[in-house]
Fold this protein.
Amino acid sequence: VQLVESGGGLVQAGGSLRLSCAASENEFGANAMAWFRQAPGKEREFVAVRDWRRRTTLYADSVNGRFSISRDPAINTIYLQMNSLKPDDTAVYYCAAGRPITSTMRTTRGYTLWGQGTQVTVSS
């Protein structure tokens, strides 16, 4: 199973982007898909998760109210709608899938499948 992200790019502060992540196979055993991001010189950090088994959606405090995660199960795809972008949102964004437990939903440990990443650059 592969995860393929798309939709990154360069945008001015205040603008919007929508990222997509498509899984190459159906029923690949995951019950959650998430977005993480990694800026240069920093650790990979949690952005948002959609857990359809627990019917739970969570966001990092830094993006809550600006970003929205959604899922289309018919095409094994999740999306990250990013609005009111800030220069601090500049990073490589990664899609992940897995079966996290409650304590690992916001950590990289909860996910076993990762995409290759897509660059998002927000200019001031």
Remarks:
- The chain has a mean pLDDT of 95.
- The two ends are 37 Å apart (CA to CA).
- The chain has no helices and eleven strands.
- The first strand starts at residue 3 and ends at 6.
